[in-house]
Amino acid sequence: MVGIASSPTRLGLAAFLLVGLATAAPSSKRAAAAAAAAAAVPLPDYAITYAPWSYLYSSEGTFPSDITVHLNHTIPEVNYAAIGAAGSVTVDTLDTYASDVYLTSADDISDEPAWLLSDYGMPDVGGSGYSAAPGLIIAAEKNESVVDVFYFYFYSYNWGRPVIGLEFDLHVGDWEHSMTRFVDGVPYAIYLSEHSAGSAYYWDVMDFSTQDANRPITYVANGSHANYATAGTQEYTIALGIVTDVTDAGYAWDITQNYRGYWYNTSTATFSLATGNSTGATEEASPSWLAWTGYWGDEQYADGVEGQYCLFGECLYTSGPTGPVTKNLGRETVCQTDDGCVIFDDLDDLTKQSK
Ligand SMILES: *[C@@H]1O[C@H](CO)[C@@H](O)[C@H](O)[C@H]1NC(C)=O
Ligand SMILES: *[C@@H]1O[C@H](CO)[C@@H](O)[C@H](O)[C@H]1NC(C)=O
Ligand SMILES: *[C@@H]1O[C@H](CO)[C@@H](O)[C@H](O)[C@H]1NC(C)=O
Ligand SMILES: *[C@@H]1O[C@H](CO)[C@@H](O)[C@H](O)[C@H]1NC(C)=O
Ligand SMILES: *[C@@H]1O[C@H](CO)[C@@H](O)[C@H](O)[C@H]1NC(C)=O
Fold first, then answer.
1. What is the pTM for the complete model shown?
2. Which of 86, 100, 219, 327 is deepest in the core (most CB within 10 A)?
3. Which residues partner with 273 through β-bridges?
4. Which key words are in the record (predicted)?
5. Which residues of 129-146 are buried (b: 16+ CB within 10 A; e: fewer)?
6. How far is the CA of 265 from the centre of ligand 4 (A)?
């Protein structure tokens, strides 16, 4: 959702050298991964018990994706030039790449290749909530009483909402999250990411699932995948004016049935493995990929290139986003932007955002 424009300056040489290093030491990497797996500390039970129960939109066309499938179909690029082959980056080598690397679609995205739309991640239509695309659950202990549990959702493609009949803000790669703050193991508040900001609510004011009264309902907007606490139309502003996201109780998605679990240490800013419930891949023994600060999609095309157009500062195609590590996991307040964070005590005003 959050397209971050950037102008990479470094050339691909450093990354080439790093790739060489990474491939030179596979056995020590495997040993490290095995050690990490053996040391995995389970997530707290409350991270699962009170996890959001989410609904994707009923006519959603861009479903949750598995990062390993995404990597398989992208090319590492710096300044629009390939520094490796399609599928050459894996979760085990990702963190050896520089932060100016864009994981660029190996296919023409206007052809809408199957991996980009990720039908495989469409939650089970029977309503069980299982998706073959694993989410991420990351627990961050803030101090003796406070633990923030982040639920990260990854999509290979963000479809932008049409404005004045034109589409804007399409991008490869889309990271969204919700975060529940637990105080002494009791849920206190929840934050929902929405475009460049988000909304925070006290726990008790949320609507809860009829399947499981412990689980707050979150709605995922069609295409943009912004998270909301209510179903209906949700307004937000871009340079061209007011745009609406739409949410409804379309496809039930239960992240606890398939996720990769991690801990984030706020004092060292490092990740370690937790036990998870992923059926999506075998590589999840390594948490190193989470430290990578590069871009999960194509770099924004110049105006006129690849069908790109821009109007009043909004472009059809924008850059892919950076990953979970850049979402202020060490936050003091419950909001991604600490400054001016407001926690709402009702769901009534659909237009308000905390930060
Ligand atoms: C939902 O998104 C899909 C594209 O992924 C689009 O085709 C469809 O028209 C959208 N529906 C609504 C109601 O916005
Ligand atoms: C990645 O691509 C390779 C080669 O095509 C394939 O064997 C492997 O199953 C793919 N992995 C994923 C996660 O898609
Ligand atoms: C993992 O998922 C399965 C099947 O959806 C579920 O029955 C099980 O309780 C889950 N285990 C954990 C540890 O969440
Ligand atoms: C974070 O890492 C430091 C240094 O290894 C360690 O002392 C501390 O206990 C860790 N914090 C948590 C919450 O595990
Ligand atoms: C624990 O951390 C939270 C979040 O950073 C903070 O608001 C709270 O004051 C801290 N409590 C203590 C006892 O340090």
1. 0.89
2. 219
3. 262
4. Signal
5. bbbbbbbbbbbbbeeeee
6. 6
